[in-house]
Structures are given as C-alpha cells and as structure tokens.
Amino acid sequence: MQTMIWPAAIAVLGAALFLGAAGVFLLAVQYRRHGRLSWRRTITTAMAAIYGFGLFSYTMLPLPATRQAACYSGMGITQTDPGHFLYEFRAAIAELGLRGFATSFVLWQILFNIILFMPLGILAVRWLRGNVFTGMVLGFAASLAIELTQYTGIWGLYNCAYRVADVDDLIMNTAGALLGAILAYLPIFSFLTGPKEGDARYAAPRRVTRARRALANVFDAAITTGAVFAITGALSLIERLGGPATNERLMNFWIPLVVVFFVFLLPSISPGRASLGQRCAWLMVAGPGSVPASAPRALIRSILGFGGITFLFQISTSLTDVSPYPILNMLVTAYIAVSVVFFLADSHHRGLAGKATRTGFIDRRAMSIREH
C-alpha cells in the first residue's frame, strides 16, 4: 500500500509547486486565447497537472542513487514478447486458483497500467477537445516515450536501464487511454469541458473594468518575475558549473532592466500599445477620444506606471539578504500607494500615470471593428 501512496503524494506536491510557479502564466495564456477565465477550465488544467506529475512519479520513481546503481544482473530486463502477460496469468491461476489470482500482483499490475492511462484518454477528449482516435494516439505516444526513457536509463543519465521496458505495458497503456477516451463521452465527465468560446481575436470587445486592469498587472508581474528568476538562476547555475562569474550589478540592475524593457517598454511603443500582460488581457493604451495613444505617450505612461514600478521594485528587492537601496524601497512603496488611491478613486479607472499622460485603456478588439 505504501508503494501506491507515496508516488501520489509526490504528484500532488509537484503539481502544487508547478502551479504555484506557472499558474499565472497558464491563466494569461487562457485569457489570451479565450478572452476570459473559466473556473472549469482552470480546475481541469490543475487536474491535468496533477495527473501529469502522477504519471511521472508512478512510472519513473524512485530513481537510483547513482548512475551505476541499476547496473546489476536481473535489473531492467527488456520484455519484447507481446502478450507475455497471458502466460503469467495462466501460471498464476494454476498456482493460486481463481480467488488468489483475483488479488495477485500479476493481475493488478496489468489492471493498474490500464487504469493509469484512462485519465489521459478522458483529458484528450474533454480538455483537448479531441476524439477517441486522439486519445488512443496520445496514450500510445506517452507510453512509448515512458518505455524508451526507462530502456535508455533516462536517455543516458544512468548507465543502465533501471526499470523494465515492457511491450505489454505499451499495449495496456494504449488500451487504457482508448478506454478512457470512450468513457469520456459519458455525461459524468462533462464538467471537465470548459466553455466553448471561440478564438478571442474574433470576439466582441468588452468593457475595461478595474478587475481586468488588475489582472493585466498580475500577468505583467508574473512574466517579469519569472523571466528575471529564470535568467539569474541560469547564470548562477552556469557559474557553479565552472562558467564565467556574475556580479551583483548584472544580477540586480541590468537583468531587471532588460526584462522590463522587453515586457513593458518595447511592447508599449510597438503596434498594439500595451505591455505583454496587457496584451494577454486584450487591453490597449488609448489617448483622448479612445484612439490608440502615440508611441511617446504610451512609453511615458509605462515608465510612470506599472512598468516603472516593477523595475524599481526589482532593483530595490535585491537577491541578497539586505536591500542595497533602502530609501528606494520606501519611495516605491509610497508611489504604489498613491497610484492605487488614484486607480480606485478615478471613475475612468486611471492611476497616477494615466492622469499624468491623459491616457486610459480600451479593448484592443474595438480597433479592428473601427477599421472594418
């Protein structure tokens, strides 16, 4: 029982960490694609993440402690005889009888291979909006990738195969995905299907609300923080592996500056006049008369608005324990507080930057309607 529980616990923990780190990005992609967020689609995405980590933990873990740990006689023997499990069934029935066979490891190993891949078929039909054939092909491809990974010792990471690559597993896993795809059409699984919105590019423009503005800021903050963390983490890893050393000014100033430039400043002066997060929320900076703002006006708004705030926050929050700019921390906090007050008090949902530059936001799809 313990061998069945701990991979599930690892799957839940892994999915929680993944969703905590990438959840906002997934919401941004969802909003960009569908023009709104759906609780059902979000919950199904979370379930898909848990299932993906579960599939990994049940088929790949535990890993050997060293590269040579799996290299001994009898470990990782490849099974290439299709239907070999039928001979094992017959031998188990002869030895244990039907009652003993019903609870035997031989039977439940095969059943577990089928059950493990049934959710993949269900998700292929409901979440990916495929069909039975899609579920079967996806199950076959996923199972083949797993068996090859086991056979190659995670593609050479280990010197020997550390688990048995079994052609019967490939067959049973594919059968499980096929069965899941068939069962997916039952009404009980309809909750896994999100609303059937079309492409958000062709949807009617919607009113720009405070919640929508705030959501765009969340997207921008997540994209910026994720990019800075990924770049600085990669440089730190390269340094530990013997690569060139990094310095604090590069890590704490220049990298945040480059990231903010590509997330906020460059997109703001490009056609579309919006940061990456605002583009995900289908927003566009507009000047008086609800027409697209000029590039200089949009750039100034970004510097005075959330783009500048994000940059100042990044450089005032050092990767070291003590901030190198304690005064800047206080100034940024005060500026954020004033901007929030303006944002909440203004009837047009404009913050301090919007007031100063006489700009606001419109749904960018409204411009396509005007052009036609």
UniProtKB/TrEMBL annotation:
<feature type="transmembrane region" description="Helical">
    <location>
        <begin position="6"/>
        <end position="29"/>
    </location>
</feature>
<feature type="transmembrane region" description="Helical">
    <location>
        <begin position="170"/>
        <end position="193"/>
    </location>
</feature>
<keyword id="KW-0472">Membrane</keyword>
<dbReference type="InterPro" id="IPR053150">
    <property type="entry name" value="Teicoplanin_resist-assoc"/>
</dbReference>
<feature type="transmembrane region" description="Helical">
    <location>
        <begin position="298"/>
        <end position="315"/>
    </location>
</feature>
<feature type="transmembrane region" description="Helical">
    <location>
        <begin position="250"/>
        <end position="269"/>
    </location>
</feature>
<keyword id="KW-1133">Transmembrane helix</keyword>
<feature type="transmembrane region" description="Helical">
    <location>
        <begin position="41"/>
        <end position="61"/>
    </location>
</feature>
<feature type="domain" description="VanZ-like">
    <location>
        <begin position="50"/>
        <end position="186"/>
    </location>
</feature>
<dbReference type="InterPro" id="IPR006976">
    <property type="entry name" value="VanZ-like"/>
</dbReference>
<protein>
    <submittedName>
        <fullName>VanZ family protein</fullName>
    </submittedName>
</protein>
<dbReference type="Pfam" id="PF04892">
    <property type="entry name" value="VanZ"/>
</dbReference>
<keyword id="KW-0812">Transmembrane</keyword>
<feature type="transmembrane region" description="Helical">
    <location>
        <begin position="327"/>
        <end position="345"/>
    </location>
</feature>
<feature type="transmembrane region" description="Helical">
    <location>
        <begin position="105"/>
        <end position="125"/>
    </location>
</feature>
<feature type="transmembrane region" description="Helical">
    <location>
        <begin position="214"/>
        <end position="238"/>
    </location>
</feature>
<feature type="transmembrane region" description="Helical">
    <location>
        <begin position="137"/>
        <end position="158"/>
    </location>
</feature>
